[in-house]
Every structure is written in structure tokens, then in C-alpha cells.
Amino acid sequence: MKKVIAIAAAGVLGLLGLSLTNFIVDKRPVLKVANWAEYIDIGDEEEGTKSLIEEFETWYKVQTGKDIRVEYCIADDNETLYNMIKMGDHFDLVCPSEYMLMKLVAEDRVQKLPESFYDTTIETNYYAKHVSPFIAQTFERNLMTNGSPWKEYAAGYMWGTTGFVYNPNASKTIEEDIKKWDIFTNPTYNKKITAKNNVRDTYFTGLAMYYDTELRALKEQYQQGNLTLSEYQTQLKVLMNDTSPNTMDAVKQKLMSMTQNLYGFETDEGKSKIIAGDITVNFQWSGDAVYVMNVADGSEEDEETVVTDPVYLNYSIPETVSNLWFDGWTLMKDCNNVDAATMFINFLSMPQNAVRNMNYIGYTSCIGSKYVYENFALDCYEASEDATDVALYDLNYYFNPNYDTTNATTKAATRSEDYIFYAPADQLKRQLFAQYPDEETLSRCVAMDYFSYDDNARANSMWSDITFF
Question: Can you tell me the distance from the alpha carbon of 351 to that of 347, in angstroms, rounded to the nearest whole number?
Fold first, then answer.
């Protein structure tokens, strides 16, 4: 998960179903799960709904006749989770981001999902039945360092992109400026733009600026039909995972010059800064971008951010490349109960539970069933019948199980009107676009691999120089 949210100890105890005054020994078998704060629906007492964790325990008993207790642990970020594992904390099931998953696989700390997990004839295999075609293809195409597809080790939970939340009224040229990575150095936005306070996301932005000419050339070749989608994305990944010493030195210089134009590096505070108008451009993860736009326009309340006048912010993904990230469930090597762990994944993959999680978290689920399309995508973003300023939006790539992305001919033959709808025109730059970017935009989005030990050491040294510059 990308957002970092503090959670009070009392809230954690409440989530786990513990009480400071109740020390009755619970002898049920334990499934120990590690995830991020506010990354699962915890229910609503006023509405009479229980947390998905509690509901899983009940569902598991119905399905198996056995008891289970979920011990749900929270980590602040991927590095904290990794350190907990490295220091000896035991977990059965964890939900790392893609690069940390690759690191755990490389260090032989996790195990493959059982082959039966993808057997769609098994009634309770909800993930295999309902995972989005786009996610399934992405997890099949991307490989671990040992050559295995992601899908062998992980089931997708949430996903997204990185891009810019921006005020469309910031300047006369903002709509063009926001398409380019060099907006970080554009003097028009001096002290009005933020970058992420972590080495991976900021290194990616530096690579995008450094390789701008090469990225534009690749995009032109792809658009002219000289590269297949697979070839295009493979070459993008090579460039956007270049950690060679010479490249890292060149990127460092790009980032050094960028710092002079920044309002600052941030992790979470950029959200309130752009809502308040202190900045006009905020580099952001897509899920948090949705939250920012919701709070700014008044459609969502935040206890710490009071909005008196609605502000309509947009979200943009640069025209050359951007980062595609995932959080996915994986089994630890010493998982004590593989059956319970995979059932936990499948329970969260029930379409109705995926919708509950998206409504609570604000991020986009990897589940892409017709139910999710109708009860989330359409429910949130379909234009009203009397709306006049509307635009067609095609989500075949994400929800249509028969959609073939291999070439233009098969795309046309397998495209279904069932997954095309009218949305308010402004949503092509707002929440809908942040949650479900169009297929063309996603063609230029790629995942970053994890840094090797030596690369990580050099990256951290570079990062220290930049942040203390």
C-alpha cells in the first residue's frame, strides 16, 4: 500500500477484537496476517456491519466446520514489514508491494501458491474466477528474478499508478505542462510542486526525465506499429529499471536540480497542502489522488481537513511513462495453515467484499467481475440520464473476460458494449481516470523491480546527498 496513515493503539485493539479487560484464553487456531493500516473494511457499528476479518472467521467455520482466529498485524510500510520478517516475526500471509514481493522471493522467504488456487472448478476459488483480465495478464507477464511469473507467488489485492494531482487553474499552460516529467523543474511551479520522500518513487521520476528522448522514441515506434505491446513494455522496463552506476549518477544530477524547484519532499502531507492551495501540483499514488480529489470537492469528509470552498482537482499520468504498482497476497515460507490463508484471499476476492474494500479504502481492487463493474464502476462514475457533458469510457480491458489485447483486429472482435458507458466528461481527468486509466495510458505504465543489495546501497547514498542538498 502507498499511503501511510497512523493508527491509534486502541483502534488496533478494536480491529483485532481484543480487550484490555478481557484475558480469556482463545484456543482457536491462528492465522497471522500482515497488512497496512486502513487497508481492509473494518465494518460500521452504526450500520450493523462487522469487519471483513470477523466475517471471514464466521465464513471459514461455515465452509470447513473448523474454527480460526485471524491475528491481524499492521506495518507502516514495506521496509517495516521486511524488517519485522527479518527480525523473526512469524506471519502466515502478508501483502507486500510488487518490489518487496520480488525481494522476498529472491531471498526464499515465501512459497508458491498451491496449484489448486487457480482451479476455477472449485466453488470457493473466488480470486481465480473474478480477477480482472488485465491483472491476470500482468501477473502472468511480469517475472520474478528466478523466472517465475508473479502469479505463482502472489494474488493481486490493490493496484494503481503514479501521477500528478493538480489544480487545472494553476497556470495557462498547466494542461500541457502536466504531461511532462520536467514539470518538476519548470519555474512556473517554483515552490508549488512536491515529490515523494522515498528513493524508489523519486528515482523513477529522475529516470523518466533522464530518458525523456528515448521514451518518446519508443512511444512513437509503438504507435506506428513497429513494436508490439509486449516489446514496447519490455523496453520501457529496461529503461525504467536502469540502476547502473553511470545512470544513477546522471539521475542524481537531474534530481539535484529538481530539488531547487520543489516545495519539498513529502509522504502524506502533500494531500492537505494541495487541498489548502499551498501547492498546485502534488506527485501522488492514484489511490491517494482519488482521496484528495474527493475531499477537495467536498464529496468526502476528512476530520483533519476542513474545506469551505470546493476545489476541483485533476489527475494526470505523464505522456511518456509512469509507474504501475501492485499490492498482493503471498504465503510466507513457514505458513502454518496454507488452506486458511488461501481461503482468506478468496474471501476478500468475493466481488461484494472487493466493493466493500474499495468503498472503504479508496484504492482499486484487482477483482474485475461484472458485479464490481456494475456496483462500483457504474455506481460511482456513470453519468446521470439528464447529463449533457458526457464522454464514452471503455473498460473492456479491465472487466471483459473475453477481451483480447493481442492486436487491433482481435480487440475489435472481442470488445463488448456491456463494458462501455457514458461518464461525466470531467471524469476523464479525475477520479474515474485515477482508478481505471484508459487502456492506451496503461500501455506506457511499467513496474519497477527491487534494488539489489549493491544498487540499494548506492541509491540510498544518492538519496542522502539529495535530501540534504
Answer: 9
